[in-house]
Every structure is written in structure tokens, then in C-alpha cells.
Design a protein that fits this description.
The structure holds 2 protein chains of 2 kinds.
Chain A (H helix, E strand, L loop, with lengths): L15 H16 L5 E5 L1 H10 L2 H6 L2 E6 L11 E6 L3 H16 L5 E6 L16 H5 L1 H5 L5 H9 L1 E2 L2 E4 L1 H4 L5 E4 L5 H6 L4 H20 L6 H39 L1 H13 L3 H13 L4 H15 L4 H15 L4 H10 L11 H13 L8 H5 L6 H7 L29 H12 L6 H6 L22 E7 L5 H14 L1 E7 L5 H8 L5
Parallel strand pairs in A: 1-2, 1-3, 3-4, 8-9
Antiparallel strand pairs in A: 5-6, 6-7
Chain B lengths: L4 H9 L1 H4 L6 H17 L1 H5 L19 H12 L3 H9 L18 H5 L11 H7 L25 H9 L12 H13 L3 H14 L2 H9 L2 H14 L2 H11 L2 H10 L7 H11 L6 H30 L3 H5 L11 H11 L11 H8 L3 H14 L3 H8 E3 L5 E3 L5 H10 L4 H8 L5 H10 L3 H11 L2 H8 L7 H11 L8
Antiparallel strand pairs in B: 1-2
The chains are: A alpha/beta, B mainly alpha.
Protein name (chain A): Vacuolar protein sorting-associated protein 33B
Membrane topology (chain A): Peripheral membrane protein
Subcellular location (chain A): Cytoplasmic vesicle, Clathrin-coated vesicle; Early endosome; Late endosome membrane; Lysosome membrane
Chain lengths: ~525, ~500
């Protein structure tokens, strides 16, 4: 039930303005060092820089050569050096050593350092309590993604909107870097789709393409000329995009069947539902024994811990020992990090699920508990996943088959098993146009610091108009959540603009926690 | 959760999973392959037209004109790499990056900053900038020099924090008294800006004694967390340990100290360092892990030295046939066990490199041991060893095969290592669950097992279906026919 476009709906802001602003700032900074200069860029910043300025623009501002910041001595012979780096200690040390090396060699040069961003990201401060949005929903971040864009991110890693496809995808001996956005017409249509729908779509498109090309057989000169001038370019573009995405799908399929994806998803769903825990635990144990993947094993353990409110001590000890034996004893440190972040914890006696549930339900029915009680704050770092999930109906009850071809709710992003918490919250708040009726939920989420802004004033428009909504994710969000909200938007007639500090997935989250750099 | 067995069956078979499984994997894959064929067949047609408009892409995959492409070019040119020169040769003209949007508005942003407006539309931003002699400035950056100097002495903590947030240069020296410093810190914490808090902490670290700093931070959790994070980033291990000691956070103290081992590359030195970690105040379990880590590295050093010697002597067959690809140092225990099962399988318990010794020393559970030994012997195609792994003699002297890991896993590992069908067949037969057995047998073409199982299940339809899959005139076909014609079996379908 999609809402048609209304002519009086507010315009979407022009986001290319943001790009131009950034570019202008950069240009200004570059011009502060007039004359020819070499630019050293930190690896992480190369992709973002590509999005806002390209090499010809840099050259116009007298940037001569481009280098990557790495652990090698700089070969630049230029008199002026410019560094574009993140404000990290190790970058400072790099620059300092370069400058000192120059000094030792008796060389004088001019240096300029440009920091980006000026402030640290909220997502770097994982320990921060300020990041209450960031702490709340780890479960979504830990699930395997099954919408196309999420799968591409999980399999190939999307960086700054672009992805590197290796030779196995491009069916040639080259790699290809592809920018994935709405301009890629093929991608735009499949990005939010459940993976099972993607093949059908691509094969349909391939057949259409073939039919289009075949038309040229019956053409006369005039028609052919017309065809070449009007349609050919578009078709060639489509052909290129199609072959890339088909290649990507093939690659994803190969990896998935190798990994026994089916078993993996079954286990994830069982964990989300709180069902068959022993079997899931032995699946994880086997996963570790076989040394399948340190990141994947960790991810599954965290998912178990979050959904079950911590592992039972026996399991915690035995899985930890096995993990250290399979992947290395230094991961002792990783476990300590995860424990502190609340991602992988051990149940203390009295912390079993039933005990917690009764504690929590007692608090919620106690009307006098307007403030956070001691008992509740002791649960501060514990996940109340089951309680929240029940209250918000995050695990949809389904009679009969869950139709992925025509999804009925946002849970399709996880094959019908789970609605991401953030998406459900947004849906509820938008429907009620306030936080009314959600007090219990708020308390369960531990959001003592949530600010309630009054939303009623702006809603002069009738309830049917296309509401424009800005969603801000502090601490990161996943492609699955974005797809789910797009679905919501289509259903309810909202238009969303997403602003996030980072796009994340389970692998990035686990790598950040892992003390040992692979 | 309390659910009955019946519920469980229902659950696993429920359509929720059917919704997305790879059961129809063959269909989907063939659909995909068909699409691919369709697309590829058009490739010739597409490629022989002149493709001026398409984005040019370099050999390494980056779009020509992008930052990463340019960096690779530079690196290629400065070295003497073949690739670099090839890139130079194959490069045509320098084309603009296709995705760059052309601004279509009447005014460009930079014209605002110039302080006068420019009518008319621009061709491109670069045109606009190269035309104008006046210096352009972006917001926030073009303040008069005066602002950079600290004129006033009267800035309060909140003013100072505000300036710090804006990234302005700001001297904190005037906060001399402890009270002033703490007020400044509290102000920084209240605005929730990590960068500012860190800036203030750097100042406090420099101007306060260790004891006072620690004492004050002990009661300020947020600032404390920042300091710990900062000390870790900057690598000030000594101060960090002092801090933990002061706070009596003994476990973190121990972990922080242990963490340092990652910076020690030399194995002997690392081993010595690990030894110093053993007595530290870890939890009971963690102490055991640390002890194991030390023992493991100790063993690995011995094994490594020994094996390197053997390998270079060239007399040992296993090392000649399968030269080592990497050193065993710092590998996880399971990897070490695999290595030991691969290269030192037959050694007696007394040696450091024998698998049995490893099992005993580190109390490796049977499951893990059998799994690893199986993987190693299967890789070497040592089927007799595999056999021996699972064969036990019961008290009557009869041999029987048992496995702590489930025979379906055994079959998978054997298959992965291209075990001959007879061997596979034997182990498929041992799989307990009938459905799994049938699936595996079909997947791996263990005809006899399929046939026998269908017969045992009295499933005629399935047997008939399987008949069409075997080769015409083969022994299997004959066998199926014999069974189908047998009057002794009471078929259920």
C-alpha cells in the first residue's frame, strides 16, 4: 500500500550541498599552503575524499603527487608536504618522525596538517554512557544480514558507499571498485530486497535486456540510428551493472553454501526466539572446535549472551577455554573487552532469566517507581532482550508461511524472524506521535537520559501527507535497519532521511572488540 | 523455555525456515547461471562499440581519476614496478570521474564566501575558483589573527570549554589552583565532549602529581574512563599500571600487563615475559589460561627448533613430502595439535611434539582431539590411521566403531579430503540418523548405502527414483532390480 507522490509534499533537501561545503573547506585549507605540494592521505580517508573531491580538483590547487600514509619512509621530493589524517596518536607519531628525519638530513620543508574530523566520533567511545542509543541494540548488529545491500556489506565490506569486487565477481582478471547508490539503477531496485528475491529479479532483467538487444535485428537504418543514439547507452550501462551484480550474487552464494549458511541462520533464529538453547550452544561449540572463523564464533557467542542475559557459568567457562584453544590464548583480552562492553557476560547467581524477568516485572507494575531503583540499576549493563522483545513484539508470530516475496512487516529483513529494535521504536513513536504509552519500554531500555521533545507542534499537516523524518543513529546502524525503515516508509507514507555516525555490521563490531589485530 | 519434543519437530520443520533456505539451491543457482549466460552473450555486442561515455577503470579496479588510483600511479612511478609502467602506457587521456555532480545552481557556495555574488551559472566549480583572484574562505576558518591569541585572563571554565569545543587555541595555564582545575574538568564532563575532556586531562596530567590526579579521578567515573582510554592510545603503560594499582583494579592491572606481550616479537623474550605474568592477580580461570599460554609457547619453541633442524637435514620423509609452510610459534593450541598430528603422529607420549603429550598436558577433550587428528590424517590420506581412531575393542574382543563427534562430521571431513568412495561409504553407513544418512549417501553417491537404506525403510518410491540416477547396466542397477523384484519385502509405498 504505497502512498503516491503528492505535489505539495515538502522537497527533500539537496544533499549535494553538503559535499560542496566539504570540498570548499578542503580547498581553502589546501590554499593556505600556496604553491606546489605533495599530499599524504590516511588510508581510511581515501574513500571519503573520493566522494567529495577528485584528483583533478586537487591538481587545480597545486597538489602534485598523492601518497598514502604508511609505515615506509616518504619518497617525496617536494618542498611542501600536506597531511590529511584522522586525529590519532599514531598519525601524529608518523608525521613527527617524518619531520625529524628531514631535520636530521638537514632538509627544510614546509608542512601542513589537516585533521578530519575535527572531533572524535561518538562511535569510538564505546565505553561512553552518553552513547545510550549506541549501547541499546547490539542484537541487530550481530545478526547475519539477508537483504541484498546488507549481504554485500557482510561479504565484501562496503566502505563509504563503494565496494571492491575482486576477480571472482568481475569474471576477469581485474578487480573493480563500484559505487553503490541510487544512480546504479539495478542496485537501487534490489538493495532492500530479501536475497531470495534477488535472483528472480536479476534473471528477469537479464531476459529483458536480451529482448531489447534482439529488437535490433528487425530494424532498418533509420530505426537503428535512433536506437544507437537514444537507447544504446542506457542498455550498455544496464548490461554492465547487471553483470557486476550477478557476479556478486554468485560469489555470495558460493561463500554461503560453503559456510553452511542454512545451519547458521537456523541457529540465529533459535537464539532470537529463545528456543532450543542447548542445541544452539553445541552448534557454537562445534563452530569453535572446527576453527571456522574467530569473528563468526565470537559473534554467535555474543548473540547467545545478549538474548539469554549472559551465559551460564559452565558454558561461559567451557566456550571461553575452547575459543582460546582454537584461536589463540591472547584472546583472553578480547573476552575481557567484551565483558566490559556487556556483550559477552556470565550470569551471576540470581541472574537467570526467570529471576530477572520477575525482578523487572515487579518494577514495572510498581507505580511508585518513578525513579530508577537500585535493583534496576544493577541490571544496568544487562540486556533485557526477552522482556523488550515481548513488549514490542519483535519476534512476529506467524501462522503458516512467511511470504518473503510480498513482505508483510519489517521482519522480512531477517527472514521473518526478528524486527530490529530501533525500527520498531521508530514505528511506534511515529504512530503515537509521542512517547506516550511507551514508558515501560523506555525503562527496560535503561534510557534514563532520554529527552522527550514535543512533536505535536509541527504536525499541522493532515495525517495523510508525506511526513519527512530525519532519523539519527548515534553509534552506527546496519543496512538491514535502513532497509526495514524504507519498507515502513513505503507502507505508511513516510519519507526518511538517515543520518548515522557509521554503517556497521557484525564483523566490524567484533573486530573493534578484538584486542588482537588479525 | 519448556517446549515438548513434538513442538520442537514442528518448529524445525516450520515454514519460517522454508522461507529462506537453500533447499532450492539448485534451482536458484541455475536461474543465476542462466542470467549470467544471457548477460555474457551480450558482452561481445556491447564491447565492440566505442565506449567513450563509460567510466574508465584502471587495472587495479579503481576508477581513473579517483584518489586511490592516483596514489597507486604515484607509487608505481616512483618504484620500478612493471605494473606502474604498464599503467602509464595503457592510460589514455585523463578523463573526469563520472560520478562528480555538476553544480547547476546560479551561485556556487564559494561565491558566498567571497563576499560578493556572481550572477550567471557556472560551468563547474573549478572554473569559478580559478577565475577569481580574491581569497576565498570557508566558514569558521577565516577569523582575524587576534582571536588566536589569549588576550583575556577572565575566561571562566565554561567559556574555556566552549572555546575548546570550537577548536580554538586556548591556554589552560591560568587554572592554577586545584579547585579551578576540578571545576574546569567538571565543566568539560558536563558538555559530554570527549575531545575536550581529554584536552583537560592532558593538562591535568602535566600539572598535577600522580597521587592527586588519581585521587580526584577515582570519584569521577567519566573522566577516569577517558584517562584510561587516552593512556592506552598513547601507550603510556607505566602510568596506566600505576593507575590500576592505585584503584585496586587488580584484574585490569593484570590484563594490561599481559597485553604488553603482543608487542614482543622475539619468542624467547616473549616466553620470559609470559612467565612474569603467571603470578599476577588474574581470576582463577584466567590464571590457568595464562599458565597454559606460557607452557604452549615453551613447547612451541622446542618443537620449532627441532623441526627446523630435521627439515634442513632432509632425512625425514614427512618433511620432504610436505614442506612446512609456516612456523608453529604463537599458533593457537588446536593448530599446534593439528601440526603435531600431521608431522609427529606416531611419536610416543614422552616427546614434547607428540599429539598424546599435547592432549595430556593441556587436557584437550576427546571431541577436539579426534576432530583434529582426523583432519590431519585425512589430509595425508592415511585411511588406516583414520580407522584406528574410531575403532575400539570391547571387552569381548570385538571391534566397534565409535566417535565422539558424530559420524556425519567424519564423512564431511573425509569427503573434503577426497577420500575414496569405499571409505566414505563405510562411514556414511555409521551415521545414526536415517534421514541424514540418506542425504549424505545421495550427496556423495554412495549407492550401496542408499539402496540398503531404502530397502530397510521399505520405501519403494525412493528406490525407484534412485534407480534412474545410477548408470545403466551397472552393478547397482542390478542390485536395485533384484531388491525390487524380491517377494520378501513388504513395501510401504
Amino acid at each position: 500500500m504505497a502512498f503516491p507522490h503528492r505535489p505539495d509534499a515538502p522537497e527533500l533537501p539537496d544533499f549535494s550541498m553538503l559535499k560542496r561545503l566539504a570540498r570548499d573547506q578542503l580547498i581553502y585549507l589546501l590554499e593556505q599552503l600556496p604553491g606546489k605540494k605533495d599530499l599524504f592521505i590516511e588510508a581510511d580517508l581515501m574513500s571519503p575524499l573520493d566522494r567529495i573531491a577528485n584528483v583533478s580538483i586537487l591538481k587545480q590547487h597545486e597538489v602534485d603527487k598523492l601518497y598514502k600514509v604508511e609505515n615506509k619512509p616518504a619518497l617525496s621530493s617536494n618542498e611542501q608536504l600536506c597531511f590529511l589524517v584522522r586525529p590519532r596518536i599514531k598519525n601524529m607519531r608518523y608525521i613527527a618522525s617524518l619531520v625529524n628525519a628531514d631535520k636530521l638530513a638537514g632538509r627544510t620543508r614546509k608542512y601542513k596538517v589537516i585533521f578530519s574530523p575535527q572531533k572524535f566520533h561518538a562511535c569510538e567511545m564505546v565505553l561512553e554512557e552518553e552513547g545510550v542509543y549506541g549501547d541499546v541494540d547490539f542484537v541487530t548488529a550481530l545478526c547475519s544480514q539477508v537483504v541484498y545491500e546488507g549481504l554485500v556489506d557482510d561479504t565484501f565490506r562496503i566502505k563509504c558507499g563503494s565496494v571492491d569486487f575482486g576477480p571472482e565477481v568481475t569474471s576477469s582478471d581485474r578487480s573493480l571498485k563500484v559505487l553503490l547508490n541510487a544512480e546504479d539503477k539495478v542496485f537501487n531496485e534490489i538493495r532492500n530486497e530479501h536475497f531470495s528475491n534477488v535472483f528472480g529479479f536479476l534473471s528477469q532483467k537479464a531476459r529483458n535486456l536480451q529482448a531489447q538487444y534482439d529488437r535490433r535485428r528487425g530494424m532498418d537504418i533509420k530505426q537503428m540510428k535512433n536506437f544507437v543514439s537514444q537507447e544504446l547507452k542506457g542498455l550498455k550501462q544496464e548490461h554492465r551493472l547487471l553483470s557486476v551484480h550477478i557476479g556478486a550474487c554468485e560469489s555470495i552464494m558460493k561463500k554461503k553454501t560453503k559456510q553452511d549458511f542454512q545451519e547458521l541462520i537456523k541457529t540465529e533464529h533459535a537464539l532470537l526466539e529463545g528456543f532450543n538453547i542447548r542445541e544452539s550452544t553445541s552448534y557454537i561449540e562445534e563452530h569453535i572446535d572446527r576453527q571456522v572463523s574467530p569473528i563468526e564464533s565470537l559473534r554467535l557467542m555474543c548473540l547467545l549472551s545478549l538474548t539469554e542475559n549472559g551465559l551460564i557459568p559452565k558454558d561461559y567457562r567451557s566456550l571461553k577455554t575452547q575459543y582460546l584453544q582454537s584461536y589463540g590464548p591472547e584472546h583472553l583480552l578480547t573476552f575481557s573487552n567484551l565483558r566490559r562492553a556487556g556483550l559477552l557476560t556470565e550470569q551471576a547467581p540470581g541472574d537467570t532469566l526467570t529471576a530477572v524477568e520477575s525482578k523487572v516485572s515487579k518494577l514495572v507494575t510498581d507505580k511508585a517507581a518513578g525513579k530508577i531503583t537500585d535493583a534496576f540499576s544493577s541490571l544496568a549493563k544487562r540486556s533485557n532482550f526477552r522482556a523488550i522483545s515481548k513488549k514490542l513484539n519483535l519476534i512476529p508470530r506467524v501462522d503458516g508461511e512467511y511470504d518473503l516475496k510480498v513482505p508483510r512487516d519489517m521482519a522480512y529483513v531477517f527472514s521473518g524472524a526478528y524486527v530490529p529494535l530501533s525500527c520498531r521504536l521508530i514505528e511506534q513513536v511515529l504512530e503515537r506521535r509521542s512517547w506516550q504509552g511507551l514508558d515501560e519500554v523506555v525503562r527496560l531500555l535503561n534510557c534514563s537520559e532520554l529527552a522527550f521533545t514535543d512533536m505535536t507542534k509541527e504536525d499541522k499537516a493532515s495525517s495523510e501527507s508525506l511526513r519527512l523524518i530525519l532519523v539519527v543513529f548515534l553509534g552506527g546502524c546496519t543496512f538491514s535497519e535502513i532497509s526495514a525503515l524504507r519498507f515502513l516508509g513505503r507502507e505508511k507514507g513516510y519519507r526518511f532521511i538517515f543520518l548515522t555516525t557509521a554503517v556497521t555490521n557484525s564483523a566490524r563490531l567484533m573486530e573493534a572488540m578484538s584486542e588482537v589485530k588479525a | 523455555m519448556n517446549r515438548t519434543k513434538g513442538d520442537e519437530e514442528e518448529y524445525w520443520n516450520s515454514s519460517k525456515f522454508k522461507a529462506f533456505t537453500f533447499d532450492d539451491e539448485d534451482d536458484e543457482l541455475s536461474q543465476l547461471k542462466e542470467s549470467k549466460r544471457a548477460v555474457n552473450s551480450l558482452r561481445d555486442f556491447v564491447d565492440d562499440e566505442d565506449d567513450d561515455d563509460l567510466e574508465r577503470v584502471s587495472w587495479s579496479g579503481e576508477p581513473v581519476g579517483s584518489i586511490s588510483w592516483s596514489i597507486k600511479e604515484t607509487a608505481g612511478n616512483s618504484g620500478s614496478s612493471q605494473e606502474g609502467r604498464e599503467q602509464l602506457k595503457s592510460r589514455n587521456s585523463f578523463s573526469t570521474y563520472a560520478q562528480l555532480p555538476k553544480p547547476t545552481s546560479t551561485y556556487s557556495l564559494s561565491s558566498f564566501f567571497r563576499g560578493r555574488t556572481r550572477p550567471g551559472s557556472f560551468q563547474s566549480l573549478s572554473d569559478a575558483l580559478s577565475d577569481v583572484p580574491a581569497k576565498s574562505y570557508a566558514p569558521e576558518l577565516g577569523r582575524p589573527k587576534g582571536e588566536y591569541r589569549d588576550y583575556s585572563n577572565d575566561w571562566s571554565p565554561s567559556d574555556t570549554v566552549w572555546r575548546l569545543r570550537k577548536g580554538k587555541v586556548c591556554s589552560l595555564e591560568r587554572f592554577r589552583s586545584l579547585q579551578d582545575k576540578l571545576r574546569l574538568l567538571e565543566e568539560a564532563v558536563s558538555v559530554h565532549d570527549g575531545n575536550v575532556i581529554t584536552a583537560v586531562l592532558i593538562f591535568l596530567k602535566r600539572t598535577l602529581s600522580k597521587e592527586i590526579l588519581f585521587r580526584e579521578l577515582e570519584v569521577r567515573q567519566v573522566a577516569l574512563r577517558h584517562l584510561i582510554h587516552f593512556l592506552k592510545e598513547i601507550g603510556d603503560q607505566k602510568l596506566l599500571l600505576d593507575l590500576f594499582r592505585f584503584l585496586d583494579r587488580t584484574e585490569e592491572l593484570a590484563l594490561s600487563h599481559y597485553c604488553e606481550h603482543l608487542n614482543i616479537q622475539d619468542p624467547e623474550k616473549r616466553k620470559e615475559f609470559l612467565k612474569t605474568c603467571i603470578g599476577l592477580p588474574f581470576s582463577a580461570e584466567d590464571s590457568a589460561h595464562i599458565q597454559d599460554h606460557y607452557t604452549l609457547l615453551e613447547r612451541q619453541i622446542i618443537i620449532e627448533a627441532n623441526d627446523r633442524h630435521l627439515e634442513s637435514a632432509g632425512q625425514t620423509e614427512i618433511f620432504r613430502k610436505h614442506p612446512r609452510k609456516a612456523s608453529i610459534l604463537n599458533m593457537p593450541l588446536v593448530t599446534t595439535l593439528f601440526y603435531s598430528c600431521f608431522y609427529h603422529y606416531t611419536e610416543a607420549e614422552g616427546t614434547f611434539s607428540s599429539p598424546v603429550n599435547l592432549k595430556k598436558t593441556f587436557k584437550i577433550p576427546d571431541k577436539q582431539y579426534v576432530l583434529t587428528a582426523l583432519a590431519a590424517r585425512a589430509k595425508l590420506r592415511a585411511w588406516h590411521d583414520v580407522d584406528a581412531l574410531f575403532t575400539t575393542k570391547n571387552w569381548l574382543g570385538y571391534t566397534k566403531k565409535r566417535a565422539p563427534i558424530g559420524f556425519h562430521r567424519v564423512v564431511e571431513i573425509l569427503h573434503k579430503n577426497s577420500a575414496p568412495v569405499q571409505i566414505l561409504q563405510e562411514y556414511v553407513n555409521l551415521v545414526e540418523d536415517v534421514d541424514t544418512k540418506l542425504n549424505l549417501a545421495t550427496k556423495f553417491k554412495c549407492h550401496d548405502v542408499v539402496i540398503d537404506t531404502c530397502r530397510d525403510l521399505k520405501d519403494r518410491q525412493q528406490l525407484l527414483a534412485y534407480r534412474s540416477k545410477v548408470d545403466k547396466g551397472s552393478a547397482e542397477e542390478e542390485k536395485i532390480d533384484a531388491i525390487l523384484n524380491s517377494s520378501q519385502i513388504r513395501w510401504k509405498n
